Amino acid sequence: MALSFLEGNEAIAWGAMASGCRFFAGYPITPATTIFNNMLNLLPPSGGVCLQGEDEIASIGYCLGASMAGLKSMTATSGPGISLYSEQISFAIGSEIPLVIIDVQRLGPSTGSAT
Fold it and tell me: Which of 47, 74, 75, 80 suits 19 as a labelling partner, its CA being 20 to 30 A distant?
């Protein structure tokens, strides 16, 4: 087995695939965008679905729908996006809908440093 190096976000994508994730929806936000990009390359050849929502709220909504339909689903965001996810997270918890949410930390508090 050859030694290889991965960035953390790439390792998350490969780990999700290995655990059976077959649906990913996200919205580009630094520093979580590379998870979306990796899932875009990994999911379709494996028969999965990867799509970009029109915003963060739609992205988590797509994931909830996919999960209710029986797919293992995942989304990824950062600080401002997780704030927008709050209502849908409450819905998922109250309805016992399984969902993987990746919250990639930014450099500083709140929205982090300027990007």
Answer: 80
